[in-house]
Amino acid sequence: MREMDTREHAGGRVPPGQTLTEGFPVLHYGSVPYYNDLSTWNFRLFGLVEEEVTLTYEEFTALPQREFTNDIHCVTTWFRLDNVWEGIAVGEVMKRVKLKPEARFVMLHAEHGWTTNLPLDDFLRETSFFGLKHNGQTLSPEHGYPVRAVVPHLYFWKSAKWLRGLEFMEKDKPGFWERNGYHMYGDPWAEQRYDFD
Length: 197
Fold this sequence. Notes:
- The chain has helices at 57-61, 90-94, 120-123, 176-179, and strands at 19-20, 42-47, 53-56, 66-73, 78-89, 105-110, 115-119, 129-134, 137-138, 148-150, 163-169.
- It is mainly β.
- The chain has a domain at 42-172: Sulfite Oxidase, Chain A, domain 2, CATH 3.90.420.
- 30% of the residues are buried.
């Protein structure tokens, strides 16, 4: 990694305390899930919904896809500019479910029981999506194949890898890293890395 002065470079796109990398570091807790057969993979929308919805892999990937470009900011202080993704806008998936009016938060559920929490308004931003490809390549297992969330305005741990479902909630509650000392929100511009920040 090489240092970058945030005041002089990248047009003000770099939050404080971050260090530029041109690579794509792999960070996660636990083992990497590998899929040889996606016929049993599904994606659940549940919690405060009028009716639960479960999509197969074929149904999920048949949703309209498009290109997204963003910057990545990791809580461990690296950042990567101008990532090009292919994926499905959050709004496309949300067309398949009707939320109850009291829904205010969402818990992202991933493989191995991994979770992370988000305010619903942040999750529903037009910049949030479900990534299938990164820089022209299908996601590797280490980067979240077959589907990862991408919520680029927050630290990258909020962009859950190996995503399997969304639970809509009235009240916020911590996910895996939040229970283990990470900030409940994770704004890179405010350096909300840990719960004591």
